[in-house]
Design brief:
heterodimer; A: about 425 residues; alpha+beta; 2 domains; elongated; B: alpha/beta; Rossmann fold; 7 helices; binds adenosine-5'-triphosphate; binds magnesium ion
């Protein structure tokens, strides 16, 4: 076997030009497949990262009415939904998949928020003291909320960078200034840095639409003070920090069940808690992306088929050229199986080599694509291994007919062949 | 008897007709014999040789080689018999151009499943025997015709076969190289190797112990 392989290499080496031309179809096919797979993988990883964020594994569970998140801007407080208690929080944090649970109130599109004459139309949240820990945000300037802020219902606000740049375009130090929330002045005490968290990578307009909830900025007030600009007894939403990314769906589902357990049957018919399943969302987006790229894979496969036929052709030529050699080998005692293996090995070595070159070419191509188009790519090691094995299989499949032809040559005719 | 052909017929189909090439050929060769078969071109010498060499099966008749009935062997068994009992020397050498003399010679041992080290050793000994100890690493295109034929003889004898079959071994050589080949044959026969040689040169045939003649597929002889 080993001998056959080294003989095959000698054969390939002695016909360098012919071998390379024969391998070309395989090389191009495999290179195309590897670069397409790298692009799919890169894009998928990016989708997952953009939606889930890098490492904070936050899962939001909130009240839904049908398919829409319950919106307190337009709707009255639903009846039968209790406020969440510390007991419930203990219950949530006792879940294996959950590290931290935080309660918050929010408005997605805040209205009537001003610094002087500049208005803010991002998101406003009333948060507890665990919210920043769940997302891994930290205070960059100023201070965090104090226990006394909560106890004394202080009108204080923390803003993020995006909010800062939209409200203070001239670069005024925001700390100590006042922001009006629905006519009520709140003192800015801190600026939160989200760098620890993740900025989605935006490559296209569609990406922008998918990820843009994050991009108009957020301001935070203590949830105790939520009732000052908004209303009393507004049911909270929950955000959980899952122990890892793969536990996110589980954590969300379990928390959702616990929270729905607090609702009566009749209430649940109208509204219920739902977890925002980012993993599933990511998967849907990935599937969409993958299915378009998969059509490219079919086209690349055609190149492999053509490459395989080229290999078969050249192997047939090789068998004819070496008829005398085959005849002699059989005359001095080589069995059929040995001749068969010799040619199969040669074809397999040829195409495997083409596969390896194709993988290398594909990686280079993937790099070039990500350079030129900012499309993300990620090399998939299993895909590379499968590609090489697959090209080996092509050699065996398309080399089979020529090898059988060689093995079945009649030694007398073969020796007489000129 | 090392080999015994009795009433061998060989026909080749030629369109709708069949052409008889060997007609009722019987031939017995004893161990240690040295026979020559002479005949004009197209008389069936090579055909006979192919039958004797187990490369071809006769249309009818029986052939016993080293106690084995050749008609009853399958493809793989025939290959094994050729490998173990027969050494071939061809008119045109049939060496593999990409292999060195030593690798060419060790080829039959590869098919016999001999280890690489032993193959190289035995090949070296066989090459020494034909006087080419200093040409082991040469390729066929770096050797003269006579040297090539001697490499081919070394390849034929490396596995200690019972019979050496030579089809016009001197046909492509000049007188001097032919002479060398004949000396090697003589020496091998003295060591006990059975030789069956085909030739149409009377000078060469005279070296054998017995001479047979074949004409239109009919074998006559021997002439001592
Ligand atoms: N495969 C074949 N099919 C048909 N006829 C064949 C075949 N092989 C040989 N013959 C015929 O058998 C006859 C004998 O051929 P063979 O090769 O045995 O002659 P030869 O005695 O070796 O001649 P030479 O001295 O020229 O080598 C020839 O007439 C040839 O045409
Ligand atoms: Mg002949």
């Amino acid at each position: 076997m080993f001998e056959n392989i080294s003989l095959a290499f000698q054969g390939i080496w002695s016909h360098k030009m012919r071998s390379i031309l024969t391998m070309l179809g395989i090389i191009i096919g495999i290179a195309a497949i590897i670069s397409i797979v790298s692009t799919i993988k890169g894009t998928n990883e990016q989708i997952k990262q953009n939606l889930i964020g890098a490492g904070n594994n936050a899962v939001t569970v909130q009240l839904y009415q049908g398919d829409e998140a319950y919106d307190y801007s337009w709707n009255a407080i639903p009846s039968g939904v209790p406020l969440l208690t510390e007991d419930t929080r203990t219950q949530l944090e006792a879940l294996d998949e959950v590290e931290l649970a935080s309660y918050f109130n929010y408005r997605s599109y805040a209205e009537n928020i001003y610094y002087l004459n500049t208005s803010f139309n991002g998101k406003v949240l009333g948060i507890d003291d665990k919210y920043f820990d769940v997302f891994g945000y930290y205070i960059q300037w100023g201070r965090n909320f104090l226990a006394s802020d909560y106890e004394k219902f202080r009108k204080v606000v923390i803003i993020d960078h995006t909010a800062m740049s939209s409200l203070y375009p001239t670069g005024v130090n925001p700390i100590g200034t006042c922001i009006e929330i629905r006519g009520i002045p709140f003192t800015v005490v801190g600026v939160v840095d989200k760098k620890a968290a993740f900025e989605p990578v935006i490559n296209s307009v569609e990406d922008y639409e998918t990820y843009s909830q994050e991009s108009s900025g957020e301001i935070y007030i203590p949830n105790a003070s939520w009732c000052i600009p908004y209303q009393f007894d507004e049911p909270q939403s929950v955000v959980l920090k899952a122990v890892d990314t793969d536990s996110m769906t589980q954590a969300g589902n379990k928390a959702q069940d616990i929270l729905n357990g607090l609702l009566s049957q009749s209430t649940r018919k109208k509204v219920s808690f739902k977890s925002e399943d980012l993993l599933k969302q990511a998967k849907n987006l990935q599937d969409l992306q993958t299915s378009t790229s998969q059509q490219l894979l079919w086209i690349a496969s055609i190149s492999l088929l053509v490459g395989g036929i080229g290999v078969m052709n050249i192997m047939l030529v090789s068998v004819t050229e070496r008829t005398r050699e085959i005849g002699l080998k059989k005359a001095i005692g080589a069995k059929k199986s040995r001749i068969l293996w010799q040619f199969l090995t040669e074809a397999a070595v040829l195409t495997s080599l083409g596969g390896i070159l194709g993988v290398v070419g594909g990686i280079v191509m993937a790099r070039v694509i990500s350079r030129l188009t900012t499309m993300p790519t990620a090399i998939s090691v299993p895909a590379a291994a499968v590609a090489v094995l697959f090209s080996m299989a092509i050699g065996v499949i398309f080399g089979f007919f020529p090898a059988v032809k060689a093995a079945n040559l009649n030694p007398i005719d073969a020796l007489r062949h000129e | 008897m090392i080999l015994e052909l009795s009433h061998i017929y060989k026909d080749y189909p030629q369109g709708k007709l069949t052409v008889p090439v060997l007609k009722d050929v019987s031939l017995s060769v004893e161990e240690g014999d040295y026979i020559a078969i002479m005949g004009p071109s197209g008389s069936g010498k090579t055909t006979l040789m192919n039958v004797v060499g187990c490369l071809d099966v006769p249309t009818s008749g029986s052939y016993i080689l080293a106690g084995k009935d050749i008609a009853r062997q399958n493809d793989n068994q025939m290959a094994e018999i050729r490998n173990r009992y027969i050494g071939f020397v061809f008119q045109t050498f049939n060496l593999l151009p990409k292999l060195t003399a030593q690798d060419n010679v060790s080829l039959p041992l590869l098919y016999a499943g001999v280890s690489k080290r032993e193959r190289r050793q035995k090949a070296a000994i066989a090459l020494e025997k034909v006087g080419l100890a200093d040409r082991m690493t040469f390729r066929p295109n770096q050797l003269s015709g006579g040297q090539c034929q001697r490499v081919a003889i070394a390849r034929a004898i490396v596995g200690n076969p019972k019979i050496l079959l030579a089809d016009e071994p001197t046909g492509a050589l000049d007188t001097k190289s032919g002479e060398q080949v004949m000396e090697i044959f003589q020496q091998l026969n003295d060591e006990g190797v059975t030789i069956v040689m085909i030739t149409h040169e009377p000078d060469i045939a005279r070296r054998a112990k017995k001479i047979y003649h074949i004409r239109d597929g009919i074998l006559t002889g021997p002439v001592q």
